[in-house]
Give the backbone structure.
Amino acid sequence: MLVEIIHKQHLDLREVFAQHQEALLQGHFKEAITLLNNFNLCHESHAKLEERYIFPLFEKIDRHSKWDVSLYIKEHEKIERLFENISKDVDWLSEQRISKSQFRRNIIALLDKEKTFKGLTEHHEEREEEAMLKELEEQLEPLLIRELVSDLKFTWIEIIASVKEPNY
Ligand SMILES: [Fe+2]
Ligand SMILES: [Fe+2]
């Protein structure tokens, strides 16, 4: 249950990022930037939800996997730094007065950087789902899990709804 609810958030985040990449690929910078900002808002909220609701519980249980909470926190920071870097690059490129060919080459370079970002987040998300959340699910009281799942579910619905636009 807990794994499913966080997995759903991970999938929703991937979808917003894919929409941003589609716009970027077509050179639609205004849309690409809006979608990247939407992604950032959802991604930050997701990380905060984990840090507020899940990490403190994970710190308390009798952990069997080798990764403790500090690793997940460090990964959040690393992901955030790389995201800021990408965001700056997209803003910078949108303001350039260069040829179409130069635009295309810069977009390719950006997509490469975004591939690194996607690799980093996917790896982090897999670890969360396969280690941290699985262990929590095994050890926490079912009632506590049910409450947690319900809180996470409704908060996430509000977050996603806040970035939805009519043209989605
Ligand atoms: Fe995370
Ligand atoms: Fe996550």
In short: DSSP finds five helices and no strands in the chain. The mean pLDDT is 95.
